[in-house]
Amino acid sequence: MSWKYETSIDRIQRHVAGLGDISIEKLKREADLDSLLSEKVCREIYGAHVYANISNFSSLATSDSSDEAEYKRLIQAVHIYQREVARIVEDSNKFDGLRVHFQGPKVHALFYRPIDDGEKLATKAFFLQLVLEDFVASVFNPNFKFTDDFKIAGGADIGDVVGTRNGTRNDRELLFLGAPANYAAKIISESSLRLTKELYEKLPAKLQDHCDAIDDDLFQIRPPDQDTLDILLEEFGIEWDREASESRIKDDKVKFPLKDISYGSARTLIDIDSLGVTNNKRVVAASIYGDVTGFTAYIDGADTESKKKEALRVLHAIRKEIATVIKTDFEGVRVQFQGDRVQGLYHLPENSEDGMATESVDAAVALQSSMEKTIKTVLPEASHLKIAVGVDLDMTLVTKLGSHAHRDRICIGKGVESAAKLEEKCAGGQIGISRRVFDGLPERLSKHFAYDSTLKCYVANNLTADIVERSQSASAAVAGAPAYIRSRGDNVEVSTRKTEDARSIIPTPSYATK
After folding, report:
1. What's the pLDDT at 149?
2. H or E segment at 56?
3. Average pLDDT over residues 57-62
4. Measured CA distances, 83 to 76, 149, 222 (Å)
């Protein structure tokens, strides 16, 4: 499969034409956001966003260990961890929050009830990080003994975002667009619990006393001892019962025994929605992340309703197009969206790292092509946006886990985390790949990448499909192979691929080397 300019233009135009009018209103009362929000029905939502991550899961998922029982125990642990964290976040007697989704081992939670009450929302965000840290240390780790104890890292921010929901059929996800939802994830570091200045300033003074300033805009929670935590939780009206949590964990271990859990490789394209705790995939795969750089500033800077609608229309078009590039143009697995960031997976041809590397980088080039060549043609208002892409390859656990009503597509492995970090390092217009991916590329792609000692990866700048194709054509011309020429408007295209509307030439050596 491949990316084609005409095909991309056509599907973007059709999607934009079908969007119709988008409504954006202030969320003024409690609502079921899953049912309320859609591409056309959006809300401005004031809330506290929390991300909490356990990085150890990734190293265990990538482990070369041949111990089948140990790997099943990891799957069981991730599944039960997600179920209990979802209960803690959403229980009305505890935090009464919204578990937005899990991004691998990282949970995204939102607190927006009571409506517009900054102090109470910030307080919940503060305590959720502490309760999850306590849960992992005092409940989860004693019940799942791995080589290393698991530790929580967290980040939280508060403010206004735009809530929406898009996708097709069962593949629909909540999105929260704006700095608070974005920055809360970016401030996570190792095993610390962090808050932005905006959230810190909303906290009651008694809770501020448990925070230390990292710099002018960032604070770190100084966890109290367990007895002090319990006193604070009672004072602020938040329930946390370790014994009840441990009882649920033990019940879940009986409900999801190791004997019922299975995993295997995949010779055909993985359908993540068919997977679950009893049916998982463990494959060598290339992970790809693509992030729209500049969009958070774009949506935050939209100061009128019409500008906000414009930004949402742009986002919906971009998300639809990049999902189609990953799934259709290059037959990959679109794992999930994380705001304006897409996660994809390429695991075929089975056991062919070169094939996976090539397919994933071709897809990365196509993402750049859609952004630069077709999205901006249909939507000139997106001209200031770019896409940054990261790609790495490693053993990966692919599954769909969690509570029955809210199971999340997840991929866990070092390659997944590395691809995400490579994308974060890259600027808009760049593709960053690991050495393992670079070594698997054919010359037609590898020659466009150079090692960047600052980013510590191989980087291609502004690499689009037409550049790759022209470079191929030039190489073929030097070798005396036929080239195919066609006109489109004022442009002349040269390709090594034969099409009905193209004429062929065989360049002479003197012509080819000019």
Report:
1. 87
2. helix 56-62
3. 86
4. 11, 19, 27
Q: How many CB atoms lie within 10 A of CB 174?
A: 18
The answer to whether 413 touches 447, Cβ cutoff 8 Å, is: no
Which amino acid belongs to residue 361?
Answer: V
Give the orientation angle of helix 118-135 with respect to helix 68-90, to 10 degrees.
150
Which residues does residue 279 pair with via DSSP β-bridges, in sequence order? 276
Closest CA to 295 of 464, 163, 177, 463: 177
Closest CA to 157 of 259, 296, 253: 296
How confident is the model at residue 56, as a pLDDT? 84
What one-character DSSP code corresponds to residue 440?
A: T
For 114, the 3-state DSSP assignment is coil
Instruction: Give the whole-angstrom CA distance, residue 281 versus residue 458.
Output: 29
Calpha distance 103→246 (Å, rounded): 24
Give residue for tokens 């502004």.
462
User: Cβ contacts of residue 11 below 8 Å, gap of 6+?
Assistant: 320, 321, 324
Q: What is the pLDDT of residues 235-287, one digit of tens each?
A: 999 999 999 999 999 999 999 999 999 999 999 999 999 999 999 999 999 99
| pLDDT: which is higher, 94 or 465 | 465
Structure confidence by residue, pLDDT tens digits, 109-121: 999 999 999 999 9
Q: What is the pLDDT of residue 487?
A: 58
Could you tell me where the beta strands, DSSP code E, fall in 274-407?
280-293, 333-338, 341-346, 386-401
Q: Rounded to an integer, what distance in angstroms lies between the CA atom of residue 313 and that of residue 493?
A: 31
DSSP letter at 496 equals S
Both tokens of residue 511?
């012509």
Phi first, then psi: what are they for 381, rounded to 5°?
A: -65, -10
Tokens of 449: 């990448």
Is 514's pLDDT higher than 50?
A: no
Classify burial at 508, counting beta carbons within 10 Å of its beta carbon; exposed 0-12, middle 13-18, buried 19 or more.
exposed
SS3 241: coil
Helices (H), 370-413: 376-378
pLDDT of amino acid 172: 75
CB atoms inside a 10 Å sphere around CB 12: 21
Residue 373: is its pLDDT beyond 70? yes
